[in-house]
User: Which sequence fits this backbone?
């Protein structure tokens, strides 16, 4: 038994102490090796201990590690802002740095609100989001997060925000490839705007490809386009939360590129700093930022914003992604991993669905694929399977929710540098873990 720690996170559960991490592998102080099959929390997109990033950070550290934004501009933050703008839709030329995903989302909704006030639309303040969704843990971002167990205790402290269902076509028995399905779910946004009163609605925030809340939910055909049209029809701003789907892991720098849709504001983080530095950004259209700056300035900021060390890391991460062809590898290896996960469905009838794009992939467990009913709660599958995989030396990420309903889903999202042999390693360890889980839970396994 380890001695009681002074450090605390969500629970009392303790973990092995990390000794070293390189590429897709991590080692604890007892020498046990783990394959980082979830890139931490979908963060370590280019793998661990990348020499280019370490070198860039070391060089920056020798020059300066902090310059307060009201006193100095810094070269890394200028260069990274230009790079990010070049990777964003045209016209989205303004970049505001933060230190994480929740801060990026807070910044996005505050910019949207300040823009509305500036242009004489002060009646607009409601931000519609989806249920389920995850947009962060700070109070503003939490008000948008569609996951009641996380937000319920804090509701008296925040403003309730309207929610619409996420497009869970696979649970609703609808064809994800049928544009009528996309239209069906997008119309829920229009209905909500009308119900709330269009001139009170400021924005709609959406994860273009879902993250931990929905388990890599890919929207049905036509959904994102229809959402954009509806936002335009009612003067509602569209915010893409690309905190998890941005940064290249889906095979494109922004997840929304898969759908050819451009938002008004983007929030990114996670793979942007890729675990080397706490880094995030809000990227906004000039059309929104210019009036706010002209009217006296954006009433928002964080002390560490634009930190030169974090920005030097972020710049080197993007250089590594581009020079190493890592987005192409994410597409290719994502395809291989997805089809291997789909193959596991033949063996394990309790895998209900496999989905995702590139290396943002998930599967979920069900009692029965016909009814798509969840496994009994008592099986504690979301925890058990993760622990069994961990014992095998494989890290995966889970949530006890299936599209916001009762159930269990698991994200398999290794770093974008993964090789085919390492994909095989993931599948072998996962097969062992699933077999042990099935035996323990009394579930059938085809041999
Ligand atoms: N938005 C999305 C889509 C996320 O996945 C997360 C993190 N899981 C956040 C926002 C919040 O990011 P952070 O934990 O860095 O505050």
Assistant:
């Amino acid at each position: 038994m380890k001695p009681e720690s002074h450090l605390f996170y969500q629970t009392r559960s303790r973990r092995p102490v990390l000794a070293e991490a390189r590429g897709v592998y991590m080692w604890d102080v007892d020498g046990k090796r783990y394959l980082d099959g979830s890139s931490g929390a979908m963060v370590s997109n280019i793998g661990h201990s990348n020499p280019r990033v370490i070198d860039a950070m070391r060089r920056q550290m020798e020059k300066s590690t902090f310059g307060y934004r009201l006193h100095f501009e810094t070269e890394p933050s200028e260069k990274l802002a230009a790079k990010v703008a070049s990777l964003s839709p045209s016209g989205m030329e303004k970049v505001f740095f933060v230190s994480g995903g929740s801060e990026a989302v807070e910044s996005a909704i505050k910019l949207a609100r300040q823009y509305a006030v500036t242009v004489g639309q002060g009646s607009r303040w409601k931000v519609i989001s989806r249920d389920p969704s995850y947009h962060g843990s700070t109070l503003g971002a939490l008000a948008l997060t569609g996951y009641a167990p996380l937000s319920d205790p804090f509701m008296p402290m925040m403003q309730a925000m309207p929610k619409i269902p996420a497009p869970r076509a696979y649970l609703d028995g609808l064809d994800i490839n049928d544009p009528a399905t996309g239209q069906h779910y997008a119309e829920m946004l229009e209905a909500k705007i009308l119900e709330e009163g269009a001139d009170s609605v400021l924005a709609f925030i959406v994860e273009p490809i879902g993250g931990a809340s929905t388990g890599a939910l890919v929207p049905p055909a036509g959904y994102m386009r229809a959402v954009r049209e509806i936002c335009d029809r009612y003067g509602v701003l569209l915010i893409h939360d690309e905190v998890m789907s941005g940064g290249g892991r889906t095979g494109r720098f922004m997840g929304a590129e898969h759908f050819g849709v451009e938002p008004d504001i983007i929030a990114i983080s996670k793979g942007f700093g890729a675990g080397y530095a706490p880094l995030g950004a809000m990227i906004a259209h000039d059309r929104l930022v210019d009036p706010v700056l002209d009217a006296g300035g954006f009433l928002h900021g964080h002390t560490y914003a634009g930190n030169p060390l974090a920005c030097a890391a972020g710049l080197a991460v993007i250089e590594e992604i581009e020079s190493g062809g890592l987005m192409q590898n994410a597409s290719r290896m994502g395809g291989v991993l997805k089809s291997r996960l789909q193959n596991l469905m033949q063996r394990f009838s309790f895998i209900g669905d496999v989905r995702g794009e590139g290396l943002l992939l998930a599967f979920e467990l069900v009692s029965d694929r016909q009814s798509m009913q969840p496994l009994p709660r008592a099986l504690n599958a979301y925890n058990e399977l993760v622990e069994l995989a961990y014992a095998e030396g494989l890290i995966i990420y889970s949530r006890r929710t299936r599209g916001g309903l009762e159930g269990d889903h698991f994200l398999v999202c290794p770093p974008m540098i993964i090789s085919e042999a390492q994909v095989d390693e993931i599948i072998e360890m996962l097969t062992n873990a699933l077999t042990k889980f099935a035996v323990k839970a009394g579930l059938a396994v085809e041999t």
